[in-house]
Description:
Elements: H1 13-22, H2 34-46, E1 52-56, H3 59-70, E2 76-80, H4 84-87, H5 92-97, E3 101-105, H6 114-122, E4 133-139, H7 150-162, E5 166-171, H8 174-181, H9 185-188, E6 196-200, E7 210-214, H10 217-220, H11 223-229, H12 237-248, H13 252-272, E8 278-279, E9 287-288, E10 290-293, H14 294-302, E11 308-309, E12 325-331, H15 338-348, H16 352-355
Helix pairs in contact: 1-12, 2-12, 6-7, 8-13, 13-15
Bound molecules: pyridoxal-5'-phosphate.
Amino acid sequence: MNFASDNVAGASGPVLEALVNANEGPSPAYGADPLTAEVERRLGDIFEREVSVFLVTTGTAANALAISAAVPPWGLCLCHEESHAIDDECGAPEFFTHGAKLIGLPGTGGKLEASRVESYLAGLSEAPKQMPPRALSISQVTEAGRVYSLEEIAALSEVGRRHRLAVHMDGARFANALVALGTTPAEMTWKRGIDILSFGATKNGCLMAEAIIVFDGALAETLAYRRKRAGQTVSKGRLLAAQFLGYLAKDHWFDNARHANAMAARLAEGLGRIPGVRFAWPCEANEVFPIIPRAVDGALRAAGFVYHPWISRSLSPGEQIGPDEALIRLVASFATREEDVDRFLSIASGSPQSAAKKPSTA
Length: 362
Ligand SMILES: Cc1ncc(COP(=O)(O)O)c(C=O)c1O
C-alpha cells in the first residue's frame, strides 16, 4: 500500500462520472462552455461572494500564476522556507513573475508567524535598490501537515494588509484543512484577508483540476492572459470544468477530505500507541509525520509499504532525529482503505500474525 502522497490515488467515481456525462456532443472550447460558467457560479455560491475563477491543471500552475498576478518582476513574495512554491516548483513562480524573488522565512511546522513576518518586513529598506515586498503566501495545509487556525490566518493577513501585500493561500489541501477546522470556505479565506487562492482539487479526487480563485478583483485583471501564455487555457475546457462539477456536487469534496483525515487520524492513533514512536508535528489533516525506529522502518518497507522519508528544518525547537530513527511522511487520501491502515499498524507494532499477510496494493 502506498502512503507516499494523496496524489498516488486515481480520480474518484463521481468525478469520472461527471466527465463521462460532459463528454457527449460538441461544446465551445477554451472555457466558453456552459459547464465552465456553472463551475464559476458554483464557486461563487461556495465562497458566498463574487469571485473570479481561472481553472488550470496543476497546483504549480495555480501557485505560479497567482503569485505572478500579485508580484511584479522587481517584487518580493514572502513564504515559508519549506513551501511548495519555494522547494517544489522548479522556480515556476520566479519564472512566471519574470524575476520576482521568493523569500523563505522559518517557522515550526511549516507555519509562518505574524511576528516573524512583521520583523522581516521592518528590516527592509525603502531604497529603490531593495526589492519591495508585494505578497505573502501561506500553505493551508502546511508542508508539515499542520493547519493554520482562522486567527493565525487573520493575523498574517493583517500584517500583509498593513504593508500592502497581497495575501495568497496555497490550498493544495484546501478541503482537508476546511474539514479539520470545521469551518466554511469563506471564513477560511476572504473573511480572514486572503486575496487570492490556489484551490486544490486533484489531491482530493479530481484527475487534474485546480482553480485560481480571486477575491481581490484587481488581481484578476491579467490572469486570463497569464494563463494562456502559460499554456494553461485548456481547449476542451468543459472537461476540466466537469471534474469540478463532480467534485463539488453533493458535498463529495467534503466527504473525500473527511475520509482522508479520518484515515490519517487512525494511523496517528495507532502509531502513538507503539513504543519508540513519536511525532514531529501533530496530525491535523491528512498527513502524519512519525519519527520511528529504523527497525520499524525496515519492517514496513520489507512488507511493501511505500512512503517518503522526510527531512525538515521546521521541527519543534529541541526536537532531533536520532541515528537509529527515521522521520517519515504518511499521506492518506479519499482512496485509503481502513484495512491498509490497520495492516500498516500491525507491521509497525511488530504483530507477527499480521506480518504474515501480504499487503494490499490497491
Ligand atoms: C503544498 C502543495 N502545493 C501545491 C502542490 C501542487 O503541485 P502540483 O503541481 O504537483 O499539482 C502540492 C503537491 O504536491 C503541494 O503539496
